[in-house]
Amino acid sequence: MCLAIPAKVLKVQGDVAKVDFGQGVARDVNVMLVEARVGEYVLVHAGYAIQVIDREAAEETLRLWEEILKYE
Amino acid sequence: MDVIAGPGCPVCILPAAEIDEAISLALNEVTVVTFGDVIRVPGSESSLQEAKASGGDVRIVYGVGDAVRMAEKEPDKDFVFFAIGFETTAPSTAIEILNKPPQNLSFLVSHRLIPPAMELLLGVGNLHIDGFIAPGHVSTIIGMKPYEIFPNAYRMPTVIAGFEPLDVLFAISMLLQQLKDGEARLENEYKRSVTWEGNVKAQRLMEQVFSVVDGCWRGLGKLPLSALALKEEFLEYDARKKYDLQIERPRDLMPGCLCHLVMIGKIKPPECPLYMKACTPQTPKGACMVSIEGTCRIWAKHKL
Ligand code: SF4
Q: Domain B16-113+200-242 falls in which CATH fold?
């Protein structure tokens, strides 16, 4: 229930977008709550995008994680 | 160091009375549509799954949008969407209500709010909390601002975190740093999704559709301003009004079940005398053992 999963926006038509959750399958989600643009990643919960993922922040987090994992 | 799950499992905290309402609808010719996690959770006497086994029409969906499409497709049937979940889920309910759903669909609104539950924890004696890890997806909607009171008024270090294992580890290290500094701050580990103001559009839609009211949490009684209810102008979609639902003497806890104490972190599951004896994932006695997000279920799964 707390699950929200990132998906890549493939196509936007009004309040509905086709997105890819990483399985190469296009699925419809409601994007009324966000400004979804093709190529960006949205966070999807129960069929509704609740946020556009901030790419810079995501990349910085990944960098931090990789740095820490290097020390393992 | 001890990391304790708070009252963050949205099906575990549902009071039995609201499950009973859904069951009574399902047993009275209404199709009840809801999330998969809900249907095994016990009400006072039984669950939605048992109502389904006795012939009730109970359907599982991925989101409220599916309920709208079902009601459109089957206009001769009466549908109720059992709308549970925290601030992450409530905006989707608001969207569909504002979209004017078909007449044969109404809503059993059981949404709850997270910050009031965190405040409750601070009032519980002997919990010895040194910091909060606040939930990233609720925070994606509400933003950081509602948590300001925790460091400011309660001197409680608070870090908003995502749900990946490394997110949680980072949040813990940020909390430890605050404790080391002897300071209580509000920090955001989940910057890729959480902003200071949150999803303003989602907040506006929620405010348009719902008022904030007192709400019961399983075994914990009524928490002030912790639930959402439909506003006056949307009462035509209120299943409680439409079907005049009255539940008499609900029972939140089976005899011996200590779910309410597990949910606030007062005890760990093994401290419940029923844990892995009378109560197992195969024979659950309480909501915390039924739901995959329940604390007892998680302990059982990892054989703790
Ligand atoms: S172990 Fe079972 S009976 Fe005990 S608190 Fe957990 S769910 Fe309730």
A: Rossmann fold (3.40.50)
* Span from the CA of B141 to the centroid of ligand 1 (angstroms): 31
Residue B10 pLDDT: 92
pLDDT for B204-248, tens place per residue? Answer: 999 999 999 999 999 999 999 999 999 999 999 999 999 999 898
Is the Cβ pair A46, B89 closer than 8 Å?
yes
pLDDT in tens, B272-281: 999 999 999 9
Q: Which of A30, A48, A63 would best serve as a mutation to test chain B binding (most B beta carbons within 10 A)?
A: A48
Task: Verify whether ligand 1 is closer than 6 Å to residue B223 (CB atom).
Answer: no
Query: Per the CB < 8 Å rule, is A30 touching B65?
Result: yes
Distance between CA atoms of residues B174 and B183, nearest Å: 11
The DSSP H or E segment spanning B268 is none
The CATH number of domain A5-70 is 2.30.30.140: yes
Tell me whether residues A2 and B166 touch, CB distance under 8 A.
no
